[in-house]
Specification:
Layout (H helix, E strand, L loop, with lengths): L1 E17 L8 E24 L3 E18 L7 E2 L3 E2 L8 E4 L2 E4 L16 E4 L5 E6 L2 E3 L7 E2 L12 E3 L7 E2 L5 E5 L4 E11 L2 E11 L2 E4 H8 L10 H5 L17 H4 L10 E3 L2 E12 L2 H6 L4 E15 L17 E2 L8 E9 L1
Parallel strand pairs: 11-13, 17-21
Antiparallel strand pairs: 1-2, 2-3, 3-15, 4-5, 6-14, 7-12, 8-9, 9-10, 15-16, 16-19, 17-18, 19-20, 20-22
C-alpha cells in the first residue's frame, strides 16, 4: 500500500484577457493565471488467494483532488460558456447560474408573503380563482410577486420558471446567480482484478469517478430547438412542457420563453450527476502448456479476447459521462463523442 499527499501552485495558466478593440480583436490568451492543486492518492495491491492451481490478485487506486483558482488577472474573463465562473477562490469547473425551483402552474401562483413564502392559489370547481391560502389557512395579507430584470420588469406568469430569488428582492437578475455544482469529481480511481486457473486467466479493469457534475450543453442546445418555429419539437420536452393553467411541468411554456429567458443557459436544469463506473476492459486468455510449446519449439503462445468500454453504470443522460477534463471547463459536455466499444482477438507468440 502507498499513500501520497500533494500540494502545488501551478502558475502561468493559459487565460483569456480582454484587450482594446482598436487592435481588431476582443481578447487574447496569456499565461498569467494560477491554480492551487492539492489532493491525496492511495494505492493498494494485494494477492487475495494463492493455491497450486488458482490465484486471485487485485489492485485499487483512489485519488482525491481539488483545483482552486489562486489568482486571476485584472480584466480576466469572469465566465466561460456563460456557465463556468473563473474567479479567485472558486474551484476549477464551478458552474454558476440560476436555480430553478418550479414552473408556475397558474398566473396566480406567482404570489408570496412579505417574507417570500409562496402562497397557494385556491380555485372553485369551475376553475375560478377564489383567493390564497398559507399553510392551509386563508390569507388576506400583503402579496408580493417576482419580476424579471428590475422592480418594474415583467411579472412571471403561469408557464414561466420560478427562479430562486437568493437575495429576496423580488427581482430575478444577475444578483441571483449562485454556485450550481462543480465538474471536479470528489474521487476518481480504478480497480484491476485478475483470476488465474491453471492455463486460463480472466482480468478486468474498472474506472470510476464519483461526485462530479456535468453541464449538458448538448441537451441545452437540443432542448432549445423546441422553442424555434423552424425546428421539429423535441418529444421529451413536448411531453413535459407547461401547456395550460394547472399543469405541473418540467419545462416552461414555449409561448413566452424568449421574453422572460425561461430557457436561459446558465441554469441547473442542464446540470446532471456525472458519476459513473465503467468496465474499461475485460480480458480472457489461455496459455498453451509448456509441453506443447516445447514440442512446437516456441517459448510461449497466448490466445486472448479483449472487450473494451462495453459496460458503463451512470445516471447521466448524455452519450458518455467520462467528459474530457482539460482547461477551466471541467465537466462541460457539448457533443462529446462517445468512446467506441471494441472487441479484439489476439495472439502473443514468443520464439
Amino acid at each position: 500500500m502507498t499513500a501520497d499527499y500533494y500540494k502545488k501552485l501551478t502558475s502561468n495558466v493559459l487565460y483569456q484577457v480582454s484587450i482594446p478593440q482598436t487592435s481588431g480583436f476582443k481578447s487574447v490568451y496569456k499565461n498569467i493565471g494560477s491554480v492551487n492543486n492539492k489532493g491525496f492518492e492511495l494505492a493498494i495491491n494485494s494477492t487475495n488467494i494463492r493455491t497450486k492451481d488458482f490465484q486471485w490478485s487485485s489492485s485499487l487506486n483512489l485519488s482525491f483532488n481539488k483545483n482552486v483558482i489562486a489568482s486571476v488577472p485584472a480584466g480576466g474573463q469572469s465566465f466561460i460558456n456563460n456557465v463556468f465562473i473563473v474567479d479567485k477562490g472558486y474551484a476549477v469547473g464551478t458552474m454558476y447560474g440560476w436555480k430553478r425551483k418550479a414552473i408556475f402552474s397558474y398566473d396566480q401562483s406567482n404570489a408570496f408573503t412579505p417574507d417570500w413564502t409562496q402562497l397557494t392559489p385556491i380555485f372553485d370547481q369551475k376553475d375560478r380563482f377564489q383567493g390564497y391560502q398559507l399553510n392551509g389557512v386563508p390569507y388576506t395579507g400583503e402579496i408580493k410577486q417576482l419580476r424579471s430584470g428590475s422592480s418594474v420588469g415583467q411579472i412571471f406568469k403561469g408557464g414561466d420558471v420560478m427562479w430562486d430569488d437568493t437575495n429576496h428582492d423580488g427581482v430575478i437578475d444577475a444578483k441571483d446567480r449562485q454556485v450550481l455544482g462543480c465538474g471536479q469529481p470528489t474521487v476518481t480511481g480504478g480497480l484491476w482484478t485478475e483470476f488465474k486457473y491453471k492455463n486460463f486467466n480472466l482480468s478486468g479493469f474498472f474506472s470510476f469517478a464519483l461526485g462530479g457534475k456535468v453541464f449538458n450543453e448538448t441537451e441545452f442546445q437540443n432542448s432549445n430547438q423546441y422553442y424555434s418555429a423552424l425546428t421539429k419539437p423535441n418529444p421529451h420536452i413536448l411531453a413535459n412542457s407547461w401547456m395550460a393553467p394547472g399543469d405541473v411541468a418540467l419545462y416552461p411554456s414555449p409561448a413566452n420563453t424568449a421574453t422572460l429567458d425561461n430557457t436561459r443557459e446558465a441554469s441547473d436544469l442542464w446540470i446532471e450527476d456525472g458519476s459513473y463506473i465503467r468496465l474499461k476492459n475485460i480480458r480472457l486468455g489461455y496459455s498453451l502448456p509448456k509441453s506443447l510449446t516445447k514440442s512446437l519449439k516456441i517459448e510461449s503462445l497466448d490466445l486472448y479476447v479483449l472487450m473494451q468500454n462495453f459496460f458503463t453504470w451512470s445516471n447521466y443522460s448524455g452519450f458518455d459521462p467520462e467528459i474530457p477534463s482539460g482547461g477551466l471547463t471541467v465537466g462541460y459536455d457539448y457533443n462529446s463523442y462517445p468512446k467506441s466499444k471494441d472487441i479484439l482477438f489476439g495472439i502473443n507468440l514468443n520464439f
